[in-house]
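[recover] target loaded
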């Protein structure tokens, strides 16, 4: 389910993997690099500073198919293993403005329900739609690399 509201984006997915595996995909650098950006984008590990510790900054570089790079930065706000991850992000690391993302995991029959929300302050409806579509593609890659329950 994707839902765009004036204040953000919400995506709910059910994965066949247990919560611990989904949480690891979000919080382990190599796992995150595998799916963040989708199948056509490379996130080199040597350009990824990503350790899921509350209060710690993170950064990543995406290398796009045309060879251009996109830099990301943020901070881990809350890390509750296998249940909840709150972090901020921006694609303009020089700016202090950050959007908050929340990932909530719940065990369900046969796997995990992942509820993702991201603030989209100042975004147009089209930008929110594009953000939701981008994350949906990323989450397809996340799910493809998860083990089954």
């Amino acid at each position: 389910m994707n839902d765009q509201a004036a204040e953000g984006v919400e995506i709910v997915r059910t994965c066949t993997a247990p919560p611990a595996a989904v949480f690891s995909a979000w919080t382990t650098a190599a796992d995150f690099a595998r799916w963040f950006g989708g199948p056509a984008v490379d996130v080199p590990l040597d350009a990824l500073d990503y350790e899921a510790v509350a209060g710690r900054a993170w950064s990543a570089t995406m290398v796009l198919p045309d060879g251009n790079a996109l830099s990301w930065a943020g901070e881990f706000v809350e890390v509750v293993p296998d249940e909840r991850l709150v972090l901020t992000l921006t694609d303009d690391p020089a700016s202090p403005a950050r959007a908050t993302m929340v990932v909530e995991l719940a065990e369900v029959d046969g796997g995990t329900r992942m509820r993702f929300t991201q603030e989209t302050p100042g975004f147009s409806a089209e930008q929110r739609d594009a953000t939701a579509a981008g994350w949906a593609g990323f989450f397809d890659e996340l799910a493809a690399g998860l083990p089954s329950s």
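[recover] notes: The beta strands are 2-5, 8-15, 48-49, 57-63, 69-80, 84-89, 99-108, 111-119.
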